[in-house]
Design brief:
This protein is mainly alpha-helical and 143 residues long. 55% of the residues lie in helices and 10% in strands. Helix 3 packs antiparallel against helix 4, helix 3 packs parallel to helix 5 and helix 4 runs antiparallel to helix 5. The longest helix has 37 residues. The radius of gyration is 34 Å and the shape is rod-shaped.
Length: 143
């Protein structure tokens, strides 16, 4: 007759592993309600299930929004410092990396990119509009 006994696994010594073993005729006389009980005192009770541990990378990716928040902050700051080109460029780069790496901060990244683009191209549009408005007056000054 084959029965199950508990032995320690060489891979994970914190959990008992059931392995088959051969018993003689004496094992056949055992009572049917005899069960294999873990000998390790650190192992959980057999009637309570053990929940698997969550991976650390999944919890870190779920809560991390650093690049996305920085992209939004620099996007707002680029409305005031758009002529420097460094601040809007940093907001766009951080926003793109935040979109790629941080799904929890997706809206922050998008708003950072949008504000940086509006600030960067907004002052170019204002300068071009000012040049177009002043262009007719330049023609009259020539005569």
């Amino acid at each position: 007759m084959t029965s199950l006994t508990i032995s320690d696994s060489p891979v994970d010594s914190s959990a008992g592993v059931l392995t088959p073993s051969r018993e003689g005729a004496a094992g056949a006389d055992a009572a049917p309600d005899d069960r294999a009980v873990p000998t390790d005192s650190a192992s959980p009770a057999p009637d309570r299930p053990v929940a698997p541990a969550a991976p650390a990378a999944a919890s870190a990716a779920r809560t991390s929004r650093t690049m996305s928040i920085l992209a939004l902050s620099l996007g707002i700051a680029s409305l005031f410092f758009a002529q420097s080109v460094v601040v809007p460029l940093a907001a766009i780069v951080l926003g793109v990396f935040g979109l790629r790496d941080e799904p929890a901060g997706r809206s922050f990244s998008i708003w950072g990119i949008v504000l940086a683009c509006v600030a960067t191209f907004g002052w170019v549009v204002v300068v071009a509009a000012g040049a177009l408005i002043s262009l007719p007056f330049l023609f009259f000054a020539a005569f």
